[in-house]
Amino acid sequence: xxxxxKHIVALSALALAAQAQAAPYQTIVPAKSSxxxxxxxxxxxxxxxxKKIAAQLHFDPAKAEQAKxxxxxxxxxxxxxxxEADEEVVTKSWFxxxxxxxxxxxxxxxxxxxxxxxxxxGTLSIKGMTREVKFPMKHSAQGKDGxxxxxFTLKRADYSIGEGxxxxxxxxxxxxxxxxxxxxxxxx
Length: 188
Prior knowledge:
CATH class: Mainly Beta
Mean pLDDT: 89
Radius of gyration: 20 Å
Number of domains: 1
Distance between the termini: 34 Å
CATH topology: Lipocalin
CATH superfamily: Lipid/polyisoprenoid-binding, YceI-like
Helix content: 10-25%
């Protein structure tokens, strides 16, 4: 094979590889994805998770500014590690899942801050209240999948999570750390 032909073959292979990587992530893998939370109750660290999440996603790490993403968390799928606490947290005083069964995050802007690192800005809606949030996110390729991880602290009072006798922060702290680990697959 002559040198010019080798260069053409090499360039063609690079172009095909670039096209394969250019497909955006469009589907999450629920079994490999999680939304967890941690907080302090009477000074003791506690944590939990939500078992059901869904998303609409169009994220190309190389074109983050063009990304579109929205996530829904089924608040009735809460798992605090205690059946009694799970029953309490879905009541009107806490999540009020009878009226507001889902929390929703909608990304408004995703911008790169370093290699495979991004700043995400968007809105988080819980119990009919919507607030702006901003947090860091990391991306790591895992074969044809991508892992998106990040987290932020929310103030439960901003969403009226814990009303009435729970409105004070002496039993359950106001700061709730929310973390996510989302496995997404490439679109076609």
